[in-house]
Prior knowledge:
Layout: H1 2-21, H2 24-37, E1 45-51, H3 58-74, E2 77-78, E3 81-89, H4 94-106, E4 111-114, H5 118-130, E5 135-137, H6 144-147, E6 152-154, H7 161-173, E7 179-184, H8 188-205, E8 211-216, H9 224-233, E9 237-239, H10 244-256, E10 262-265, H11 272-275, H12 283-286, E11 291-294, H13 305-318, H14 326-345, H15 351-359, E12 364-366, E13 369-373, E14 379-380, E15 383-389, E16 392-399
Parallel strand pairs: 1-3, 1-4, 4-5, 5-6, 7-8, 7-9, 9-10, 10-11
Antiparallel strand pairs: 2-3, 11-15, 12-13, 13-14, 15-16
Helix pairs in contact: 3-14, 4-5, 7-8, 14-15
Amino acid sequence: MKSKKYAAAFLSAMLAVSLFLTGCDTYDNFLAEFFEKSEQKETTVRIGVFEPLTGPDADEAEEEVRGIELAHELFPEVLGFPVELVYADNQSDVQAAVQAAQSLADQDVSVVLGSYKSVLTLAGSDIFAQAKIPAIGITCANPIITQTSDYYFRVCYVDAFQGNSVAKYVLEHLNFTSAVALQKRDDDFAGAMIEQFTGKMTRTTGDPDAVTILEYPENTEDFTPYFEAIRATSASAIFFPSEAEQANEVLYQASLGAYDFQWIGIEDWARLPEVNLDPLRDSQVYLNGVAYITGFDDTAAGLTEMTETFLRAYREKYGEEEKPTQATALGFDAYLLAIRAIEDAGTYTQGTMIAGKISSVFEMPGATGSITLNAQGDPIKEVVIERFFKDQPRPVFTSVPVWGQ
């Protein structure tokens, strides 16, 4: 009888040693699973919602929150436990954002989602990193967010990524091997996108002169000389990363001068029909054929199977007439990414392990497309190009990333 007790004790000791020798990750997984599953049934997994619920940014943030809540309704559990959304109002204010971030850290949330507006996001970044709580930005596109923290990720692409997708549109949809980039002088925002656009065009064509860059001074009123310079290059595709108000004026002037170019702009160009306030200007004429990039289109239901799930759930809740915004779709994807990472980690208490699973996500089906994160924590994903037919946008091309390029 005594020998059996010794044998059992020996086996237990060997098991403990083997667990230790297999490494910290395995041991942490063992502890997390053992203790988490031994807790009471009332245990909930808390996911923080770090958003300006009040103040001047509340309306825009509401779109992100709507997506988070819709995903939570569809997927209310993880690891067999119910998920609780814990809200922290950063009040559209940097100082309040610091306090809101600390309140989430004090409540031991597993993952944080948000915030709308990059400056508010950055206000909470150090706090989440110190607490080893991974956070996922939704529409905050400032590159610094992921560059300065190993615990912050995002589901929206950074601004410069638009340049890569426009190049794919020019090369693969328009079948052009040359283009012009029109840029306001000293505009760093546009410069970052044009740099990526030029790099992609050059690498693909092998032609270092594939893109001609034309700069214009900030207070330029007459763009005719630039139209003539574009015409002299024989290129038809024009990448013009500018805000909608400036683009509206340039496109109108080009139409008046009968300059027949293939204009391609950025996300802000979705506002073009509404920024024309001149009753003498017919936007159906000068916007016709103009293209721009967007991260999501509610008619592009074939992105992934999760796109269909999202659209169906949204219509059931809000009605057929109301269209989901890109921010709502991205909020939906941020929640999915959080749940996926917790499931893959096998724990909701080990923030470092969860962060590691977020950083290694590959081709996760989301509402806005298939999501893979790069080494920086930024997504590589499908991007939709829309084109105006008169003044109504329709998706015409989906830029799909090709690995190894």
